[in-house]
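HOLO CASE FILE
Compound: flavin-adenine dinucleotide
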Amino acid sequence: MAGRAEAAVHRHDMVVIGAGLSGLRAAIELSDAGLDTTVISKVLPLRSHSVAAQGGINASLGNVAGEDGAMDSWEAHAYDTVKGSDYLADQDAVEVMCREAPRTVIELEHMGTVFSRLENGYIAQRPFGGAMFPRTCYAADRTGHNILNTLYEQALDREIRFYEEYYTTALVRDGGRCTGCTAIELLTGRVHGFAAKAVLLATGGFGRLYSRSTNALINTGDGVALALCAGVPLKDMEFIQFHPTTLFGTNILITEGARGEGGRLYNSNNERFMERYAPHSLDLAPRDVVARAIEEEIAAGRGFEGGYVYLDLTHLGADHIRARLPGIRQIAMDFAGIDPITDPIPVQPGQHYSMGGIDVNNRGETRLPGLYAAGECACSSVHGANRLGGNSLLETVAFGKLVARAIVQNTQGLPAPATDAVRSRAASEQERIDVLLGRKTGENLFAIMDDLKDTMFEYFGIFRDERHMKEGISRLERLQERFERVHVKNKSRVFNQALIRLLELEDMLLLAAVLAQSALRRRESRGSHTRTDFPARDDEHFLAHTLAHLRDSAIDLEYEPVRLGMFEPTEREY
Ligand SMILES: Cc1cc2nc3c(=O)[nH]c(=O)nc-3n(C[C@H](O)[C@H](O)[C@H](O)COP(=O)(O)OP(=O)(O)OC[C@H]3O[C@@H](n4cnc5c(N)ncnc54)[C@H](O)[C@@H]3O)c2cc1C
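Model generated. Tokens follow.
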């Protein structure tokens, strides 16, 4: 049995877990600084969810003038971001990101990203929700695909070592530091140890906690759970973004860029209902506002049967749709059988993004020395209670680079880590997995997973209240009990995907519990967190970040004040 073999232990200066945009950007910077860097990914790097990003990346390049001829600036970008966040974002972190943005996009262009262009040859920018200026740089509606391929090529060029199809199962702590991790090689089922001076988590979001989600199936929040189990707190986990326009039925994303290009929302009375909810910004109000509006229209009987509204692009014309939204047209034709050139697209809100995550500072440092986080798994709090479209791609690339710089500084002069703790953890992880595989009968893993997703959507969705959330928490507790008896039928060690789903489910249940507790305790409505029993924002008590710790297997919540700055909290109007 593999469990009896001595675990293989690999030694590198630096281990990056995750090969999406944040992991790759960091790896490139680390490698350029001379650190022997390796990247672990549970899928082939180009299958990371970043590849699916459609609409674009924000930067105040000012290539397209605003409404009254005014020019964009990093301050305007920061203002939109802080207002969009419903004032929960830390304003110093927002400043770092917005100042860094123009440099980030130009650097990507120089690395080889093929952005769409204006007639004058400058990088094109489209309007996006909640933004005062057309600020979102894009490559048609396949921006993530373009950027991820660019960074992957750059990483290959530097001969960075990839451990592809390795699933990380645990972080290793030794002497008060993170000194590595353990990962299953999917091909053989063997657990390997990785010893390093530092570990960067760049493992993406946890959208698959929800039944209706735009996220890739791999977005199960493993890294977020790993950090929590290693003693690092999670921040603002109650804030889940629901994207207003996902394709009815499959919930594949229909980019905000479609409304940025002029697309309009209609209810079943053929009304542009956004006039009622956001008289100035209309369809380009921020996502929390538009998602709530659609749900309210449907609840009031002004949606279409099954629960959707229409997104109409037909007035944009065939040429414009073909040039700017080719991917969206293809998705609508392949998955809904309609052509947006001639027919409106049926859309409904779906889970899209995790604003909360691993608590980090502006340099991507966690409270555990040697452990860092960047990208969607991290919460440096640039998005607060609601993220603006186009700011996530920016965050991944900008903070991917900045966290690498912090790591280079912090690891200078550190000796290579001892491998003993990593080796013994790899052995105990192998044993744990052998025990799981050895179970002959028990609960069906996929039934628990489906119940979990439905519970999250139903009880912790767009609208929340105490009674339902308490019921949801009881359901989650019952699912956890069932999980203790879970088993997998497939006993193979070679590419055992069921085993990986089981390990993911363990993490998902933990994160669901944290999310639920955090949502219940926040007795106000802010950004994406809408409490029908507490409809107002309550700055007196909740202008604060939720921090969730795992102490003696129990979730312990505390609050930390938001770092304000240039922008005083006021009521949001769009
Ligand atoms: C459909 C869609 C469209 C989007 N469009 C936009 C957009 O236009 N603009 C914008 O700003 N944002 C957009 N977003 C959000 C944005 O794309 C993501 O937030 C961002 O790409 C996340 O990047 P990341 O580097 O943090 O992680 P990801 O790209 O999600 O990568 C995570 C990596 O972690 C690895 N991993 C995870 N767990 C493990 C484990 N246990 N062991 C080993 N490896 C592991 C995975 O293999 C993967 O390589 C979109 C999101 C979606 C879902």
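CASE NOTES: DSSP finds 16 helices and 25 strands in the chain. The two ends are 62 Å apart (CA to CA).
CLOSED: yes
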